[in-house]
Design brief:
- The chain is an alpha/beta fold.
- It folds into two domains: 9-179, 3-Layer(aba) Sandwich (Rossmann fold); 184-396, Dehydroquinate synthase-like - alpha domain (Dehydroquinate synthase-like, alpha domain, Up-down Bundle).
- Helix content is 54%, strand content 9%.
- The protein is globular, with a radius of gyration of 20 Å.
Length: 397
C-alpha cells in the first residue's frame, strides 16, 4: 500500500509572509507562540518586528522565543515549552531553518500533551498538539513538510529523531524572499541537504510511485537552481525554485525515508559540531559509491534528473551521478569547509563510536544494500582520507 502524508496547505509566493495573520486565523489561533532563529530577530534583519506588525493587523497576541543556538536540544524544547505555558499559547509558528521548525514541532506537542514521553511518540496512533505553521527561511531541511524532528538529548549528545504523521505542520508557508539573505556557504549546505533528501528518498527501498514523483522533481529543481543561488543569492526566481524543491524533497523523504547518508551524518555532525547540511554533503559521494550496484538504474535516473545526457548507458549514467555530486562539492568548497571542523586523525579515532551511533538510528534498513558495521567504517575512513588530501593540497598551494 502506498500512502502520502503532507501538509494540509502549502503556500508559495514572494512576500506571502504578509498573509501570516490570515493563516493563523484560519487555524483558529489567537495567542501565537513564535519560535524564530535569533539572528532573524536581531538587527539588521529584525524579522520579529515585521512579523509583529503583520500579526497585529489581525489583533493577535504574540510571544517570541529565540533562546537557542545551533541544532535543537531537549533543553531548548524544555525552555520553550515553559515559555509557551506561561504565555498560554494556543498556536505555534516556526520561522527559521530546520532547528526552529524542529523545536516548534516538539513545543506544539509537549505544550499540549506534557505527559507524553519522547520514546512514545512514534508508537502513538495519533498525537494531540497545538496548530502548527512553518515558515522556512532556508531551502534545505524540508522540515516544513516532514513528520520527523531531530532533537539532541542534552545529557548524552544523542540525536533523537522521532517521527509521526501528526508532526507534519498544518501549513507550510514558502516565501523565497526570506531566503535571500542566506550566505553562500549555508545556501550550499542546505541545498545539498535538500538534494540528498530527494536522492535518498528515490533510492530508498520504501520508495513508491508517489514519492518518486516528488523526489525526481526535487532533484531536477535543486540541481538546476543551487549553482545559480550559490553564485547569486539575490536571484529570487532561483530562490523560489530552491524553496519549492526543498519542500518537494521533504515530502519525498518523510514518506520514503532517508537512509545511510543521514544515518551516518547525524553522529558525525553531533561529534564534530558540524552544520547538518555540511556533514551530509561530506558523506554523500561515499555512500553513493557503497550503494551504486544495488540501485544502478535509480542512480542513472538521478543522473538524468541532474542534467546528464540520457543517451549514455545505465552504467555510465550511474557513475556520472557520483561525479556530479563530487563536482558540486568542489564548486561549493565542501571539502575545504569540512576540514575546518574535522581533524582527519580525530575522525579516525572516533570511527568505532560513529559506527555504533549510525547503526542505532533511522535509515539503515531502508538502504537497498543494508550496511554492516564494517561498511560504515569504510565510509568514514574514505572521508578521513579525502579530508587529508584536501589538507595536503591546501598546504602545497
Amino acid at each position: 500500500m502506498s500512502v502520502l502524508n503532507l501538509p494540509r496547505h502549502i503556500y508559495i509566493e514572494s512576500g506571502i509572509i504578509n498573509k501570516l495573520g490570515e493563516f493563523v486565523k484560519a487555524h483558529k489561533g489567537n495567542r501565537v507562540f513564535i519560535i524564530m532563529d535569533s539572528f532573524l530577530a536581531s538587527s539588521p534583519i529584525d524579522l520579529d518586528k515585521r512579523v509583529e506588525g503583520i500579526l497585529a493587523k489581525e489583533n493577535l497576541n504574540i510571544s517570541f522565543f529565540s533562546d537557542y543556538a545551533g541544532e535543537p536540544t531537549t533543553d531548548h524544547v524544555k525552555a520553550a515549552v515553559e515559555r509557551l505555558n506561561s504565555f498560554n499559547g494556543d498556536c505555534v509558528i516556526a520561522i527559521g531553518g530546520g532547528s526552529a521548525i524542529d523545536i516548534a514541532k516538539a513545543v506544539s506537542l509537549f505544550g499540549k500533551d506534557p505527559e507524553i514521553k519522547w520514546d512514545e511518540i512514534r508508537s502513538r496512533p495519533c498525537l494531540n498538539r497545538f496548530p502548527l505553521l512553518a515558515v522556512p527561511t532556508t531551502a534545505g531541511t524540508g522540515s516544513e513538510a516532514t513528520s520527523i524532528m531531530v532533537i539532541t538529548e542534552t545529557e548524552t549528545s544523542f540525536k533523537m529523531n522521532p517521527s509521526h504523521p501528526d508532526l507534519i505542520p498544518d501549513a507550510a508557508i514558502l516565501d523565497p524572499e526570506l531566503t535571500v539573505s542566506l550566505p553562500s556557504h549555508f545556501t550550499a549546505y542546505t541545498g545539498m541537504d535538500a538534494l540528498t533528501h530527494a536522492m535518498e528518498a528515490y533510492v530508498s527501498n520504501r520508495a513508491t510511485p508517489m514519492t518518486d514523483f516528488f523526489a525526481l522533481e526535487a532533484i531536477r529543481i535543486v540541481g538546476r537552481a543551487l549553482p545559480k543561488v550559490y553564485q547569486n543569492g539575490s536571484d529570487v526566481e532561483s530562490r523560489k525554485d530552491m524553496i519549492l524543491g526543498s519542500c518537494y524533497a521533504g515530502i519525498a523523504f518523510t514518506n520514503a525515508s532517508t537512509n545511510l547518508v543521514h544515518a551516518a551524518g547525524r553522529p558525525l555532525g553531533a561529534r564534530f559540531h558540524i552544520p547538518h547540511g555540511l556533514s551530509i554533503a561530506l558523506l554523500l559521494p561515499f555512500v553513493m559509491k557503497f550503494g551504486l550496484e544495488s540501485a544502478k538504474e535509480r542512480y542513472a535516473d538521478v543522473s538524468i534528473a541532474l542534467g546528464e545526457d540520457p543517451s549514455l548507458n545505465k552504467d555510465e549514467l550511474a557513475k556520472r551521478s557520483i561525479e556530479i555530486i563530487e563536482e558540486f562539492n568542489n564548486q561549493f568548497r565542501i571539502w575545504e569547509d569540512g576540514k575546518k571542523f574535522i581533524n582527519p586523525e580525530q575522525l579516525m579515532e572516533a570511527i568505532p563510536t560513529l559506527v555504533t551511533d549510525a547503526l542505532s538510528g533511522n535509515g539503515i534498513l531502508t538502504n537497498r544494500k543494508v550496511p554492516k558495521d564494517h561498511d560504515i567504517a569504510v565510509i568514514f575512513n574514505l572521508l578521513a582520507e579525502r579530508l587529508s588530501v584536501s589538507s595536503l593540497n591546501h598546504s602545497l598551494q
